[in-house]
Amino acid sequence: MGERETPSNEDDREEDIKIEVSQKRGILVCPFCGSADLVLLGVAGLTPPLYLCRKCGRTTYTPLEIFPENDTKESGT
Fold this sequence. Notes:
By secondary structure, the protein is mostly beta strands. It has strands at residues 27-29, 38-41, 50-53, 59-60, 64-66.
C-alpha cells in the first residue's frame, strides 16, 4: 500500500483569509435609531449584556460598534 494522493484541481484552491485582531474599542450605537446613548442593563457576566437606548427606548443584545476615522486635518493652517 502506497501513499494516497489527493487530486489537485486549480478550481479547488483555498483563498487566503486574513483576520484582523484589534485592541481598539469602538463606539456602541443603537441599531434602531443610531444613538450612542446606551445603558447597560443587568449583571455583567451572568447573562448576555442587554442595552437600553435612552433615545428610542428599545432594548438590544447586539448594539452596533462603529469605529470613527480620525480627522488629521489641522485647523488654522
